[in-house]
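Predict the 3D structure for this chain.
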Amino acid sequence: MRRLRVFCITQVIDPEHTYLGFMHGWLTALAARVERFEAVALEVNPKAPVPENAGFHALPGGPLRALRRGLALESLLLSRLWQRRVDVIFQHMCPIYANLTAPLGHWFGVPSVLWYAHPAVTPELHTALRRVDAVATSTPEGMPLDDPKAHVLCQGIDTERFSPLDQAECSVGSLPARICT
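Done. Predicted structure below.
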């Protein structure tokens, strides 16, 4: 059986990023389990290691940023779909990605999965639920809408990445004592 070829859309691919640095580890681990893995992000650290079977692509910025990013994303995905190089589209956390890419996937018979773990219910989320084939989430509260497409998969926290601060680091005075050892 042939292994999957995944096309992923996320916000940031940068192991040094304060909030989303964990994504690089997630993407690298996922790439190890599939045949081909391509990820597109608003920001990509050019120094971030890229697995041999993967490609990391940054969307453009500048004037008319949203329009340019949407067109670049759809153009890249369309080229991969046309070449039959995608088996699943995986959108991380932003329903707008699903709203942009799921229709293309459906046109080519490629399923679309949205990872969503946030209590916010937006019009974009309602639309995305109609467009995707499945929603993965970490907890029942992470997907605030009751939908048969939602699947709770639990957390994926790298506990090595997050560890308590030692007392010297807590001398700053602005850190709550409860996060210090």
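Residues 65-82 form the longest helix (18 residues).
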